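STRUCTURE:
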């Protein structure tokens, strides 16, 4: 049995959870936060979530986990296209979403999680980075109807999980959200929400996010 360790407001946890659901693999979810404790680092050496346990072995880094699932369960739904160019596009979109949108947006995440104030320069810097990332992403996305083409792929797991979290986090700081300058993004997210597996990921995220926001006020 696969065990997924993570938390509902972690986009990387939700990316892996959506992949597991789409692949129809049985798994148990174990809610855990990140940690620098020695025992935790033995399972996830950067102290991050998510990590996966399969047959007593531990795997970390969400993209490595998705690639593992693809190889280890070849009879499940494929999340990477067989055409190398198409597969490269999937990986490019994941890289753009995570490196050039999620990582900059994290400068603001701390505020909601730790109740910190954010200096205006940080907000400005984040907005500039998000605008640059959004422009780059808009050059590669397809939204036809999925982000990398006409099939659901690993890029949808990453993009859906990340955009749903960023939107919640940055609304208090940056408005309008520069990510919605990506033509077709809102329609894409609305379409994704009609996917029962995406809705399964979104629901616990919304519950925890609401509770966090209440605590912060
Ligand atoms: N590159 C990692 C990123 C994972 C990540 O940043 N997880 C966050 C939660 S969404 C975390 O554990 N942060 C704690 C930390 O950075 O120490 C992946 O793809 O799994």
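SEQUENCE:
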């Amino acid at each position: 049995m696969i065990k997924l360790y993570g938390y509902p407001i972690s986009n990387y946890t939700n990316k892996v959870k959506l992949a597991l659901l789409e692949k129809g693999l049985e798994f148990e979810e174990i809610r855990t936060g990140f940690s620098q404790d020695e025992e935790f680092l033995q399972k996830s050496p950067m102290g991050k979530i998510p990590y996966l346990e399969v047959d007593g072995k531990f795997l970390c880094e969400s993209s490595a986990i998705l690639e593992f699932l693809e190889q280890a369960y070849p009879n499940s739904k494929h999340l990477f296209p067989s055409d190398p160019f198409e597969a490269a596009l999937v990986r490019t979109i994941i890289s753009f979403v995570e490196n050039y949108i999620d990582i900059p947006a994290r400068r603001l995440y701390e505020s909601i999680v730790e109740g910190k104030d954010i200096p205006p320069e940080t907000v400005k810097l984040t907005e500039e980075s998000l605008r640059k990332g959004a422009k780059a992403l808009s050059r590669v996305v397809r939204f036809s109807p999925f982000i990398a083409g006409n099939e659901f792929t690993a890029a949808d797991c990453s993009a859906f999980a990340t955009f749903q979290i960023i939107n919640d986090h940055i609304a208090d700081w940056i408005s309008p959200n520069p990510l919605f300058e990506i033509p077709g993004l809102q329609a894409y997210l609305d379409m994704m929400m009609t996917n029962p597996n995406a809705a399964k990921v979104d629901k616990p995220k919304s519950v925890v996010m609401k509770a966090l926001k209440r605590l912060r006020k």
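REMARK: The longest strand covers residues 2-6.
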